Amino acid sequence: xxxxxTMTEQKYREELTASKIxxxxxxxxxxxxxxxxxxxxxxxxxxxxxxxxxQGEDIISFLVDTHSVIKIELDRYDxxxxxxxxxxxxxxxxxxxxxTFQIQLAVALDLAKxxxxxx
Length: 119
Description:
globular
């Protein structure tokens, strides 16, 4: 998908940038970052694509670099419960996405490419 510089894209860009800052700098998000780095030791960047808070757990999807999406289901209260982790190649994740999520993913990919070029 080609980006056009719309207000929607700008809104996603701001949200994705803020979520990345929290992921890498907020100690409360350290569990998520550790799980991503365990699955992808060579990871350079990650962006939160979705965050679904359930009653006792969170289900979060992250774009990792520009090649994969990792979906993590993590118990919010009991840290002894093993997380459920699923990894998808970006091509598989893109299938059947709504237009809204296609735009969000395109913006996330653009940000990830920029991050990787600046490293």
